[in-house]
């Protein structure tokens, strides 16, 4: 379980995040939506201790993520390309992560096999540096890397952005299968209301740093969001 408690982030006078409370149970597929600048990435970055909150805290299994390290072995994330080692090829990068996660070659092969359809023969064995991959393929590498070692919790910032239409469908299918198979908690931010409502059990709408909707009724999510965004 992840808890966000009275979390505030301020840059000078500007309060960019102000979340009173949020509890995300294990196994939930949690969607985060909001206009540009609403605070979605900032929230994820604080939850991953990449940015420090001005006040408040985030707890995973009851431990403050800014003060403990144990949670790091249970969490995978892909927020942006800065999280990758772009001077490596995809194969070299996966091999580096295999060693870090202490997986066998066979386990790594099994992991990558799950992404075969999504990779579409563009990534593994291609000898291309990550820095030279297309934006969509780079995203696929990041998502596959985030999920190495079967983390309990996976954070994905705009995972559908830059993916071609068939890859978007494959990724949705993959997340739904993974959720079913392993009870992974997914936290997904997205501007794609159709995709996020299709895969998520719950959608939180952020506006100017505040939660203004917490939607948990699957049938009404899309309609409520379309009304809010005027789409
Ligand atoms: N280092 C920083 N210094 C000052 N302001 C910042 C900094 N980082 C983020 N912000 C501000 O915080 C606010 C929230 O930004 P954030 O990137 O979290 O929004 P977002 O919801 O992810 O937006 P988008 O949908 O455009 O990706 C914005 O107003 C942004 O300008």
From TrEMBL:
State the name under which the record lists this protein. Answer: ATP-binding protein
What the entry lists under PROSITE patterns is as follows: ABC_TRANSPORTER_1, ABC_TRANSPORTER_2
Q: Which SUPFAM superfamilies has this protein been placed in?
A: P-loop containing nucleoside triphosphate hydrolases
- Domain ABC transporter: residue ranges: 2-230
Recorded source organism is: Mongoliitalea lutea
Q: Which InterPro entries match?
A: AAA+_ATPase, ABC_transporter-like_ATP-bd, ABC_transporter-like_CS, ABC_Transporter_VariousFunc, P-loop_NTPase
Asked if Nucleotide-binding is a keyword of the record, the answer is yes
UniProt superkingdom: Bacteria
List the molecular function annotations (GO) for this entry: ATP binding; ATP hydrolysis activity
One Pfam family linked to the record: ABC_tran
Q: Per UniProt, which keywords does this protein have?
A: ATP-binding, Nucleotide-binding, Transport
Q: Which PANTHER family match?
A: ABC TRANSPORTER ATP-BINDING PROTEIN ALBC-RELATED (PTHR42939:SF1)
